[in-house]
Amino acid sequence: MKKEFLKFIKNYIKENKMSVITIIGAGMMGSALSFPASDNSHDIRIVGTPLDKDIIEQAKLTNYHITLKRYLPDGIKFYSDNEMEEAIKGSDLIIGGVSSFGVDWFLKEVLSKIPNSIPVLSVTKGMIDLGDGNMLTYPEYYRKYTNPYKSLNAIGGACTSYELADKDNTHVCFCGDDINVLRILKRMLETDYYHISISQDVRGVESAVALKNIYALAVTLAVGISEKKEGKGVIHYNSQAALFGQSVREMMKLIKILGGNEENIVFGAGDLYVTIFGGRTRKIGVLLGKGFNIDEALDTLKGVTLESVVIAGRAATAVKELIGKNKIDRKDFPLLLHVDDIITNKAMVDIPWDDFEIEREL
Ligand SMILES: NC(=O)C1=CN([C@@H]2O[C@H](COP(=O)(O)OP(=O)(O)OC[C@H]3O[C@@H](n4cnc5c(N)ncnc54)[C@H](OP(=O)(O)O)[C@@H]3O)[C@@H](O)[C@H]2O)C=CC1
Ligand SMILES: O=C(CO)COP(=O)(O)O
User: Fold this and answer.
1) 361 in a domain, yes or no?
2) Residue 296: which domain range?
3) Is residue 278 scored above 90 in pLDDT?
4) Is residue 194 domain-shared with residue 246, that is, in the same domain?
5) Region 115-119: what's the mean pLDDT?
6) What is the mean pLDDT of residues 62-87?
7) Which atom of ligand 1 is nearest to the CA of 213?
8) Any binding-site annotation on 268?
9) Burial call 243-261: b when 16+ CB within 10 Å, e when fewer
10) Per-residue H/E/C for 129-140
11) Does the annotation flag 26 for ligand binding?
């Protein structure tokens, strides 16, 4: 164990003290974590990014979070980005609440200001494509450009922010290098509704929950296709189920190629389910399924956090690189490659149903 965290762990175990948890990035998910944090009686600070001014201003006045559309727990102290250093001082844990679009801001403007003795727990889902067929999870990306002694952990799993705020039962996985740090983070945040597995397989957990965004877009194409044919409100499940099954198959292959354990499909498939029904990604899948091209769909959804488009492009670039090097077979990824065609080449939706069929001889 790195010596920086011995202090953190000893203090925590000795005093079992209520901690100071500082959430940086006042979006919906980061802010929703204030509910399990508050139910564990921690002191909570929320720091807005330069883009979160409206959220912080309103929360300071009324405690109401304008995008989460919920009142936050009492007693939270709110800070704007220029007050970040003051908020970090005395913290026991920093939660990184930015989306994929804020990862470089978090790396440059936040991580360097966090002392090595304070662990970081990030909610951001996504991966970086290295151009050679390999990809990095965000904790690995942060690790590459930051002090090697920083404790970088992340949360994967199925969890919509507004349902966490409503204290609906939720099961997530905290991942990181050090199991003892993970055990403490779990103790700090678990409640009777926020259930936490822990895992040192950062690649496996983080790739599973990042990849699900691509496939949530893919499955919800079927929702748009049936709405286009029969009108809103008419729901068909066969085609969604076929796409869900193919998604799970491709995700498992990708998790393995990326070096994670395939058993993380439990977190990826759960997350896929919740995102299909309750995520923002559904909005773009449905529009594309209805016949919008990618530009029209993105234009219609301006201002909505849509990470699926980014991760689909990055994963497809990596997969095409590996196909080019004959390391993998393009026949294994028909759905990913179709989503990429829709996004990169502005193709219209034309699900390659026959390519999902297999023949397994024993
Ligand atoms: N691990 C988990 O359990 C879960 C994780 N997530 C993930 O959490 C992340 C945040 O999601 P969510 O809170 O719903 O999204 P929001 O859009 O509500 O919040 C995103 C946050 O990132 C900030 N941000 C966006 N772009 C930039 C930028 N260029 N520079 C600096 N900051 C930026 C936002 O500012 P602004 O509000 O002004 O845009 C905001 O603080 C996503 O990666 C999502 O996939 C989601 C659900 C569960
Ligand atoms: O990751 C999520 C739920 O676990 C939320 O997904 P969206 O970004 O599509 O809303």
Assistant:
1) no
2) 211-356
3) no
4) no
5) 95
6) 97
7) 45
8) no
9) bbebbbbbbbbbbebbebe
10) ECCCCCEEEHHH
11) yes
305 Cα–ligand 2 center, Å = 9
| Residues recognised as catalytic | 212
The answer to whether the annotation marks 29 as part of a ligand binding site is yes
Q: pTM of this prediction?
A: 0.93
CA-based nearest residue to 156, from 124, 189, 191, 183: 124
What values do phi and psi take at 346, rounded to 5? 55, 30
Residues with CB under 6 A from ligand 2: 125, 158-160, 271, 274-275, 279-281, 305, 307
What's the CA gap between 116 and 354, in Å, rounded? 52
| CA dihedral over 204, 207, 209, 214, signed as positive or negative | negative
What pLDDT is stored for residue 7 in this prediction? 63
Maximum distance among all Cα pairs of the chain, rounded to whole angstroms: 66
CA 281 to ligand 2 center in whole angstroms:
7
Alpha carbon separation from 167 to 19, 22, 46, 130 (Å, rounded): 21, 20, 19, 38
Note whether 46 and 163 are same-domain residues. yes
DSSP label at 200?
Answer: S
Q: Does the structure show a pLDDT above 60 at 132?
A: yes
* Both structure tokens of 222: 């079927």
Give the Å distance between the CA of 29 and the centre of ligand 1: 7
Structural domain count of the chain: 2
Our mutation pick for probing the ligand 2 site, out of 162, 281, 287, 306, counting the most ligand atoms within 8 A of Cβ, is: 281
Beta strands at 135-137 and 127-129: parallel, antiparallel or unpaired: antiparallel
In DSSP terms, which residues pair with 128 in a beta bridge?
Answer: 136
